Amino acid sequence: MHQPVLVQEVLKYLSPQPGEVVIDATIGLGGHSELFLEKIQPNGRLIGIDLDKESLFQTQTRLNSFLTTGKEIGSIDLFCDNFVNIGKILERLRQKGVDIIFLDLGISSYQLETSHRGFSFLKEAILDMRMSLDNPLTAQEVINKYSLDNLIKIFRFYGEERFSKHIAQRIITYRKRKKITSTIQLAEIVKSAVHYKGQRIHPATRVFQAIRIEVNKELDNLKGFLERIVRYLNPRARVGIISFHSLEDRLVKESFRNYQKQGPLEIITKKPIVASLKEKRENPASRSAKLRVAMRKNI
Ligand SMILES: C[S@@+](CC[C@H](N)C(=O)[O-])C[C@H]1O[C@@H](n2cnc3c(N)ncnc32)[C@H](O)[C@@H]1O
Fold first, then answer.
1. Which terminus of the chain has fewer Cβ atoms in its 10 Å neighbourhood, N or C?
2. Looking at ligand 1, which atom is closest to the CA of residue 242?
3. Residue range 161-167: average pLDDT?
């Protein structure tokens, strides 16, 4: 089960109130949404979005059981879609503005641990890594078709991997003999190309992260979202984003700063909010989490 991160902090800074409209645009397994639902009753509206059909199916069941608790739920609407399409979704719902938009980026531990999705270098699976099964680009395509330069760029930029060139060269040499089709096969190739001494993380961690970001166009999606966000916020609405990667965090920070300079948003978290030592110990997924929150000015 996915354990949601920074729960108390999200509730504190986003402060969901009875009757409010909340979009959880990366609803995943619904961990944060369940808490939002508690706070926005009576008559609150929750709109959940996720690219991942399998996760949404589970979330639907989880939130349905919430609906039977007898509380006065306004409405819950779930969409299998990309969060860049928030505008179209709101149009379909005839919902003009919202009070909270929340993003908890990356993948859930459910996705990581479901072996057939191919996100984990610890579990034998076909190299896939797509959040949306409609995405035509898979990790296998990236690894077997991308040029040497492209692979180096991806590993360096998205993975901040020191041995990008070595790893990319090793992949190119290997794939001339044999197609790279499985997670463990790729993890072994990466391991054979790097010489990390006594490090705590698995040598394939950064490469897998980089491929995942490329396959799912994660930074492009975040940029697209940030460009559109302000027009959907009611006066005094809050937008909160949890990121797990310095590139994502930088995009959020710069976008919030620009909006603050231009006028429509006020930054609520001067510095990013990070997990307490206790949470970091108990939930390793929270270790790199950074939450930033901004508020739509009352104009
Ligand atoms: C860290 S998980 C969210 C977990 C959730 N907060 C919970 O408590 O269960 C991130 C989720 O975002 C989804 N996701 C990532 N990028 C997306 C995008 N561009 N549009 C919609 N969903 C996306 C992933 O499929 C994943 O389920």
1. C
2. 1
3. 94
CA–centroid distance, 268 to ligand 1, in Å, is 23
DSSP single-letter state for residue 234: E
- Bridging pattern class, strands 98-104 and 233-243: parallel
Strand partners, 28: none
**Whose CA is closest to atom 2 on ligand 1?**
108
Q: How do residues 221-242 score in pLDDT, each as one tens digit?
A: 999 999 999 999 999 999 999 9
Give the position, in ligand 1's atom list, of the atom nearest the Cα of 285: 1
Q: State the Cα–Cα distance between residues 44 and 21, nearest whole angstrom.
A: 6
The separation between CA 164 and the C-alpha centre of its own chain, rounded to angstroms, equals 24
User: Band of the pLDDT at 299, cuts 50, 70, 90?
Assistant: low
- Residue 107 alpha carbon to ligand 1 centre in Å: 6
Please state the pTM of the whole predicted model. 0.94
Return the exposure string of 272-293: e unless at least 16 CB atoms fall within 10 Å of the residue's CB, then b: bbbbeeebbeebebbebbbbbb
Residue-wise pLDDT tens digits, 199-210: 678 889 999 999
Domains of the chain in sequence order = 7-110+218-296 (3.40.50.150), 136-215 (1.10.150.170)
